[in-house]
Amino acid sequence: MAFGKDSIIYLISTILCTLTLAASGNALRQRNINVGNQTATAAATGVRLEINTDDLTNAGWALGVGAGGAAVGSLILFLYSLHLRPVDRFSRKVFFLSPLMLTLNTLLMFASAIPVTIFGRTREAGVKGFIGNTQLPDAVIKGASTIPAEYWQNAYVKFMVIAAWPELPFAILSCFLAYRAWRKERPSAQHHHTDTVHPVISHNEEKTQDIRHAERM
TM segments (predicted)? Predict the structure, then answer.
């Protein structure tokens, strides 16, 4: 087992991506709890609430998907870097999937971290209240709400926004290391290595035969 610099980078990437996944999952879960409690409380007074958080919710889902995929990809590469077992021929053929999937998920994380940060810092939930078919004024709804409409006032949103960024440098570096590992493990590289070794072996065998022939004479 070899635990080198590559292994450390992969391990850090795995841990931080998992943290990002947990932060986004917690934010989505807490959002559902808050919306459910708020609508249930309003319904008890005869008011039907419609709470819209699609902008931040969709960005959070994308961040979670990217972080989860990157965590799995980094973990696979971490185990590969330990050299626990030889890489077989089939694994070499599909090894290109490791840097490819890690790169795609890293791009998804980066692309979703931007709207998560912008929406989380600057936007608020859209809240509408109705009694029957009559919509209540926004001022009445905001005044009666016990949960802040601004996303940034929620601790779980802050946690998701903060957790969206630390993993990216390590994920990007892991992509580079994964590409370098693929270049080493791809079948064409193995075939080239074999071709360069065989002539040396053949040349050494010829020299051995010449020596033996000279000794007999």
Answer: 7-28, 59-82, 94-118, 155-179
pLDDT tens, residue by residue, 7-57: 999 999 999 999 999 999 999 999 999 888 888 888 888 888 888 899 999
Q: Are residues 117 and 149 in the same domain?
A: yes
Counted domains in the chain: 2
Query: What does the H/E/C string look like for the chain?
Result: CCCCHHHHHHHHHHHHHHHHHHHHHHHHHHHHHHHHHHHHHHHHCCCEEEEECHHHHHHHHHHHHHHHHHHHHHHHHHHHHCCCCCCCHHHHHHCCHHHHHHHHHHHHHHHHHHHHHHHHHHCECEEEEEECCEECCHHHHHHHCCCCCEHHHCHHHHHHHHHCCCHHHHHHHHHHHHHHHHHHHCHHHHHHHHHHHHHHHHHHHHHHHHHHHHHHC
pTM of this prediction exceeds 0.85: no
Domain that holds residue 203: 187-217
Return the number of other C-beta atoms located less than 10 Å from residue 68's C-beta: 19
Q: What is the mean pLDDT of residues 100-114?
A: 96
Angle among Cα 70, 73, 75 to the nearest 5 degrees reads 105
Q: Are 207 and 42 in contact (CB under 8 A)?
A: no
Signed CA dihedral, 59, 62, 68, 74: sign only: negative
Same domain, 81 and 92: yes
